[in-house]
Each structure stands twice: as C-alpha cells, then as structure tokens.
ABC transporter ATP-binding protein
Amino acid sequence: MRAMVTVGRADVPKVLSVAKLRKEYGGKAAVEGVSFEVGRGEIVGLLGPNGAGKTTTINMVLGVLQPTSGTIHIQDLDLAAQRSAALALTNFAAVYSPLPGNLSVYQNLRVFGLIYGVKSLGARIAELLEQFDLVKYRDVKCGVLSSGEQTRVALAKAMLNRPHLLLLDEPTASLDPATARDIRARIREFAARDTGGVLWTSHNMYEVEEVCDRVLFLARGRVLLEGNPRTLPGEHGQASLEELFIAVAREPLALERS
Ligand SMILES: Nc1ncnc2c1ncn2[C@@H]1O[C@H](COP(=O)(O)OP(=O)(O)OP(=O)(O)O)[C@@H](O)[C@H]1O
C-alpha cells in the first residue's frame, strides 16, 4: 500500500490544529508525533484499531491529559497557554462519560449550562430540548432513559455552549440503526451551520463513510493515512473502507515503510 497524506482545504479556517503531539506512559509512546487539522464545517473521523491512541489524542485536545510534547490550538488559541478560553470553544460527548443519572434532563442541562456560563440559559435549554426531541423527557431522570435518549441528551449538553470544536468518541455505539441515523443527521446539521468542526471516533466504517468529510487512520500512535473516506480505499487498492481499515490494522509497518 502507498502512504498518502492529503490535508483539508487550505482556504477553510481551522477550528483545531494539532502539531507533533506526543504522549508517553512510563517511557512508552501511546501517541507519537501526531499532526492534523479540523476545518470549520468539517467532520473528521479519527479511526484506528483498539489501542491506536484515539482516546488519548481526544483527551489531550480536551485538556484532560497533558501532552508530553507538541501543541494544540483551538482556533488561534494555544491550549497550553490560554486553556480556559480555548476550552470554552470546545465540548464533547462520549458513551463512557454518561450524565449524572439521578438528575433530570432539564437539571443536567441547567447544571452544565451554569458551569459553561451560557447566557439566556433557559431559552437555550428550551431550544435544545426541541431540537433533540427531548421535550417529553424534560423532567425524567437521565438514569432511566434508553441509550438512544441518553445519547440525545449528551449531544444537547455538548451543544449548550455552541462549541466551535465538537469531540465525539463513538457517539452512536450501542444505538439501533434508526436512532444512529437520526444522531448522525443531527451532527451533520451542526457541521452544516459552518461555525464548528467535528472530530469523531467510530469503529463503524459504514457510518464513517456516510458522515465524515475526511478520515485519519491512526495505528500505534501515528497517523498512517489521511484522506476522503469514499476515495481512500480505491487509492490503496482496497474495495471498501472496512477492508482498508483491516489492512492498516494488520500491517501498519507496510505503510510506515512506504
Ligand atoms: N493511563 C495509561 N497508562 C498507561 N498506558 C495507557 C494509559 N492510557 C492509555 N494507555 C495505552 O495507550 C495506548 C492507546 O490507548 P487509547 O485508549 O488512546 O487507544 P484507543 O485508540 O482509544 O483504543 P480503543 O479503540 O480501544 O478505545 C494503549 O496501548 C493503552 O494501553
């Protein structure tokens, strides 16, 4: 296979720029010299086998983990130097980070809205309850909602501060196909408003092909491939994104050497 690196459109303002990012655990690199960008209005898929370094990368962008070296800019703000301002432009949703189950949907959105300092919070919550079809669950405790309903609440929470960068770690994992399609449509709507960009991890290649404008393949902490998910498989002699994924996961060294 031929390693090919294409970057996003140069004329699109960047909401995220990551350069030479590295994270070591006990002297062993989990993320090793990763560089990429996410443009405004763009949905970028971060793909890779288990243990590739996706969550570590996302946690560094969220400011949860301190990089060993490298830089992260959210728009023009350096995360290391202007942390609060940079994180105010960001939000995220992940299956492993559920909202407190003993609070109702409204209480959860209110608590997070207060933490984010959202202006006109009542109106913003009403707008999001409407947008994510949650009006009827307003006073229901999050812990009793179905996975699909909880994902919609997590996305509503992630939109509260109108983020410019939205990080989604497997947002549709454990959802039925119809609910997953609905969630994808809402995320596409967010990107189509053209004020924010999305970094999305998923193991569902069908979904990635449908939703992402660009993908990055990560293996052993390095970006091995980058490109359009619809044309990338053909460029590397593979029939589908899934086949390409399997080939990259099995033989990352073949790409690193080429
Ligand atoms: N706190 C930690 N201490 C030591 N090693 C860690 C720690 N966190 C992650 N790692 C290691 O770093 C590597 C990357 O892990 P990471 O969770 O980023 O992978 P991932 O691509 O998100 O995988 P998955 O698809 O399974 O969620 C793995 O080898 C993991 O074991």
The chain has two domains: 1-89+164-258, 99-162. The CA atoms of residues 109 and 157 lie 6 Å apart. The pocket of adenosine-5'-triphosphate is lined by residues 25, 30, 48, 50-56 (CB under 6 Å).
